[in-house]
Amino acid sequence: MTTRVLVVDDEPQFLRALATNLRGAGYDVETAETAAGALAAAGFRPPEAVVLDLRLPDGSGRDVCSSLRKWTDAPVIVVSAVGDDEEKIAALDAGADDYVTKPFAIGELLARLRAVLRRAGPTTEPVLEVGPIRVDLEKSAISVDGRDVHLTPLEFRILRLFALNEGKLLTHRAILREVWGPSYGEESNYLHVYVSQLRRKLEADPGRPRHLLTEPGAGYRLVS
Prior knowledge:
5-stranded parallel sheet, 4-stranded antiparallel sheet
């Protein structure tokens, strides 16, 4: 079955070229040029992935991403001519899975699209338990000692990666590349912030973690 991709951009020439390339790669592509059009298209025919420009004539791509995240986990790749760190962080916090700065090679976008679709694929282990931490992958639900814990979509993706690799040392670079995408392999400051947030939500004493452990100079591991 062909994967449905919604492409949203207000530049007609760029939109046509991108849609043509994606169709040539075997995707079923729908397009929109506005925020309102994107949300209407997604609601009428839910996509399996979204390629989303940040600057739209009637709103922000971040707002579109936030609206989509209320009802779908379909991966979102943001594309933008703005490449500064603040914009990237804001887009990722809004629920984007990756960020590509214009101009880019179509091969890079296709590779990133394949990567986010792989990460969004079904798992054969819908519920994982690591000590008191219970991770329901199918429902995206977390509990600690039976108490429900709310995580943001990005926090959940990080914890999911840890839980699927229980006890294994995951390097900073490996986590960043898997969760944020290939361009974030060296930007460990993003990761430190989110690990601290996870500890506050998961650990009885965040200052002395027992489960989400730091391996100095190397990375992190989740243990029971």
